[in-house]
From TrEMBL:
GO biological process, one term: protein N-linked glycosylation
GO molecular function, one term: alpha-1,6-mannosyltransferase activity
SUPFAM superfamilies for the chain: Nucleotide-diphospho-sugar transferases (SSF53448)
Record keyword Cell membrane present: no
Keyword Phosphoprotein assigned: no
Family the UniProt entry places it in: Belongs to the glycosyltransferase 32 family.
Protein name: Alpha-1,6-mannosyltransferase
InterPro entries in alphabetical order: GlycoTrfase_DXD_sugar-bd_CS, Nucleotide-diphossugar_trans, Och1-like
Membrane topology summary: Single-pass type II membrane protein; Single-pass membrane protein
Signal peptide interval: 1-23
Record organism: Penicillium capsulatum
């Protein structure tokens, strides 16, 4: 009998040991809704501790300017100064539900995502997953808490996706492009060779240039600027204005109790999307704080960009034609994918297509003004991308 009890006790200990080992080595495969593997829970706990520590040391990383009651745009200008003479940072930013290393990363997106690394080998290419975006914004904007509050309060993922691109480019600069875009040419080819990159701080493309009578049924602006692919130096005033606008509008609606789907007094297009973005670009072009505007000068409007076929430079901004980021759409004078001005291909598989279903030469402080002449450039020659992919990256970074 004692031998039998010892056998039972040994078997129980063995089973307990196997259970503990298996629980620590369970595969990272979800078994039910809400499932979280042990490693993920552990990482979340570690991240929570790290965030707490960052809050204690954030004053050493980002020093707040005066009281929190200082105007939002002043705080953003202080934390993220704009230096036109700097090089474009060699970052490529994208977002998706999972990282490319995950087994759940959409197989249909892998070639498009890989194209950015292949054509820009000297760039740091980051695909920020959904569960990391919030932590990154909290870290970058720890000294401007109302910006993080606004980001965290947005009620729809598509709004946060819009806001994230403006936020990460304002803070770090580089290139942002949607995950369903394919790089056709290296980023170094986006600007013509004859253009001094130290005079350019922002690159934006035309998304829509519809001259049909019912254009307003399809687009928010007659000539609408693209926001699925952007390039900027950190702190650019267009981004600062856009971040401030979204933050102010978000907190206003939150205070009024209408920051909810179906209750907001702005559509997504006019809140975080292409409509609001296009307005921010035009506001910058017509802002006397940044441009030397004489009495009687007319505003820069869509008429200055319609039927554009090559680069145009307005101050420190280069505007690309519709072919650059929307080739192959076979309308609005867009060229095909092999056009010398075709830089990025967009598959239009992102969430923003469902919007209608959901809601119907500057100083560090950038106060020196300059002329607003619009300078067109002749189209670049078509170079073979495979000749030397390193040269465009060097060109993008600056000589």
């Amino acid at each position: 009998m004692p031998a039998f009890r010892r056998f039972i006790l040994a078997a129980a200990c063995l089973l307990a040991f196997i259970f503990v080992i298996r629980s620590r080595r369970s595969p990272d495969i979800p078994g039910a809704p809400g499932y979280k593997p042990v490693q993920e829970i552990f990482e979340e706990e570690q991240e929570a501790l790290a965030r707490s520590q960052r809050r204690k040391t954030s004053s050493r990383q980002q020093t707040p300017i005066g009281p929190l009651s200082a105007p939002l745009r002043d705080r953003l200008r202080y934390q993220f100064p704009y230096r036109l003479d700097d090089r474009f940072p060699a970052y490529i930013w994208q977002t998706w539900k999972y990282t490319p290393a995950s087994m759940y990363f959409d197989v249909d997106l892998r070639d498009a995502e890989a194209s950015w690394t292949t054509l820009n080998p000297l760039f740091v290419h980051e695909v920020i997953p959904d569960n990391t975006q919030r932590h990154l914004i909290e870290y970058l904007y720890g000294s401007v808490p109302d910006v993080f509050e606004a980001y965290d309060s947005l009620p729809l993922p598509v709004m946060k996706a819009d806001f994230f691109r403006y936020l990460v480019l304002l803070a770090r600069g580089g290139v942002y492009s949607d995950i369903d875009t394919q790089a056709l040419k290296p980023a170094g080819y986006w600007l013509p060779d004859e253009l001094d990159r130290s005079t350019v701080g922002f690159i934006v493309g035309i998304e829509a240039d519809s001259d049909r009578p019912d254009w307003h049924d399809w687009y928010s602006r007659r000539v609408q600027f693209c926001q699925w692919t952007l390039a900027a130096k950190p702190g650019h005033p267009i981004l600062r204005d856009m971040v401030a606008y979204i933050t102010e509008e978000t907190l206003r609606m939150k205070k009024a109790g209408i920051l909810k789907v179906g209750k907001m007094d702005k559509t997504i297009m006019e809140f975080t999307g292409p409509g609001a973005w296009t307005d921010a670009v035009y506001r910058y072009f017509n802002n006397p704080d940044y441009f030397h505007i004489q009495p009687g000068d007319k505003n820069i409007t869509w008429e200055d960009f319609t039927h554009q076929t090559t680069h145009q430079k307005v101050g420190d901004v280069v505007v690309l034609p519709i072919t650059s980021f929307s080739p192959g759409i076979y309308q609005m004078d867009a060229g095909d994918f092999d056009d010398p001005m075709a830089f990025v291909r967009h598959s239009f598989s992102g969430a923003f297509l469902n919007v209608r279903e959901i809601q119907g030469f500057f100083t560090d402080t950038h106060t020196q003004d300059h002329g607003r002449q619009i300078h067109p450039f002749k189209p670049m020659h078509a170079f073979a991308v495979v000749v030397c992919p390193l040269l465009p990256a060097i060109a993008f970074l600056g000589s």
